[in-house]
Amino acid sequence: MNFDKTKIDYTLYLVTDRELMSCETIEQSVESAIAGGASVVQLREKECSSREFYELALRVKKICEPQNVPLIINDRIDICLAADADGVHLGQSDIPCSEARRILGTDKLIGVSAALPEEAVKAQADGADYLGVGAVFPTNTKTDARCVTIDTVKEIRKAVTIPFVVIGGINPQTIGTLKGTGINGAAVVSAVVSQTDITQAAKKMRKAALTAIKG
Known about the structure:
Number of strands: 8
CATH topology: TIM Barrel
Oligomer: single chain
């Protein structure tokens, strides 16, 4: 799917997690979250084989595509290309953004995790379309995540022009403290997929994120 990169809605950026989801399948969690307003989906799989990841990506793409929701693959450029997903998200220890851009070309979205203004600036210079900034609050989903203060979030906003989502312990309560910081969205895992009613949780989270974005 070809997206206008300047018009992507990052408000509610869903990150999948099969260990935390309240339903039986990743597909169910994605479908329910999109029904509640998830506007970007990142498929994150750390344990499954490459074949399983690829086949899952194809199934999730079939859910995302009719809803015009970009599908981002965590870490794996090969899976992104094989499944013709909409983009890839890279951490600081993954393949460099500049190299990913060379491989993927100009059409695919590339997101980069950043915890420092200098990392954000480098990612933008290397061709990143958006950033994932965090962890803003303590989180159990990524125990090795670096902590980012609200002041650092503001510094990153001043340092770059590309959109960014905040991640790490984001829920309808914590997102409120980020009002006026210039964020473009909230990246969430457990605040949506762990809840009994994923669709309702997504609706609630999207509403809280919109309030924080508008400042």
